[in-house]
Amino acid sequence: MPRNHILTLSCPDRVGLVASLAKAMEQHECFIESSRTFSDPETSRFFARLVFRGPGEDLPDGLNADLGNLATELEADWSVHPEGETIKALLLVSKSDHCANTLLYGARRNELPIEVVGILSNNETLKDNFAHWGLPWFHVPVTRDTKPEAEARLFEIVEETGAELVVLARYMQVLSDDACRRLEGRCINIHHSFLPGFKGARPYHQAHERGVKVIGATAHYVTADLDEGPIITQVTEVVDHTFSPSDMIETGRHLEGNALLRAVKAHAEHRIFINSGKTVVFAR
After folding, report:
1. Of 237, 250, 245, whose CA–CA distance to 211 is shortest?
2. Biggest CA pair distance of the chain
3. Same structural domain for residues 51 and 143?
4. How confident is the model at residue 200 (pLDDT cuts 50, 70, 90)?
């Protein structure tokens, strides 16, 4: 049975782009099952995600070559991936396990197309908590003086495991500018507030002191600008005057796990495009 594939493409906007993609599919007898496109008038960029299948089990001969030629003509970035193909993910944690467990459970239930290749932590606090998952555990301590060595070890582990995505699942260490650049577009962080918001220590206590009525969590790509990377997903919940800081923290845990799950799922399903510091995130 023919397998679906995903074509993603972004390029400078111009007339006839949808027709060009449809023509390329037609020439190779490919059936387009779903199509999402967006033209951003602010950046003059065009974004497309097509789910398609060819007449046979494999991609038609010459399709990639023709798409490559079209991409050159359009000055486009593009890729083709089998639909449902898992990507290898390395999870980074510190002393909170709820976000990582949300991702691990989603992967185990085949709701999240990732293969977790290991868990890295700057301490041993959660080692026993994750033992039942049977995954490699990497303990990489970090201090101000040892950060270069620790990040060198991180990239060794990324190379050894073949990790295509690094997820900061409540990893409470700031990556260096160099590490952020090397991981650009393939490192997702969860921030425990609705960005932009209350930064620094004890964010839920700050929010409580200000009497906020909505709390949230933000998943974003990591950049050298701390907590300023392109936002992927945000999840919020209404609260009221009866909520204590502990109530907010408990609610926040669920929001963080949900936001991170959605962001990782969108990335793994090739539904995200970075667009001048923002993101275009297509629905399935």
Report:
1. 245
2. 63
3. no
4. confident
pLDDT at 196: 56
Paired strand residues for 231: 220
The encoded tokens of residue 196 equal 């932009």
Query: What backbone phi and psi angles, to 5 degrees, belong to 109?
Result: -85, 5
d(CA 261, CA 188): 11
In a domain, 278, yes or no: no
The Cα–Cα gap between 223 and 226 comes to: 7
Q: Is the pTM for the entire model greater than 0.90? A: yes
Catalytic residue among 40, 66, 227, 247: 227
Region 217-228: what's the mean pLDDT? 89
What residues contact 149, with CB distance under 8 A and at least 6 apart?
none
Domain assignment present for 279: no
Q: Note whether 202 and 224 are within 8 A (CB).
A: no
What is the CATH number for 125?
3.40.50.170
Gap between the Cα atoms of 176 and 158, Å rounded: 16
The answer to whether residue 247 is catalytic is no
What is the tens place of the pLDDT at every residue in 86-96? 999 999 999 99
CA 283 to chain centre: 14
Which residues is 89 bridged to in the sheet?
Answer: 116, 165
Q: pLDDT per residue over 246-269, tens digit each?
A: 998 999 999 999 999 999 999 999
d(CA 117, CA 164): 10
Residue 9 has φ and ψ, to the nearest 5°, of -150, 140
Q: First CA to last CA across the chain, in angstroms? A: 22
Q: What residue numbers bound the domain in which 145 lies? A: 87-268
Same domain, 115 and 46: no
- One domain, residues 156 and 208: yes
Q: How many structural domains does the chain have? A: 2
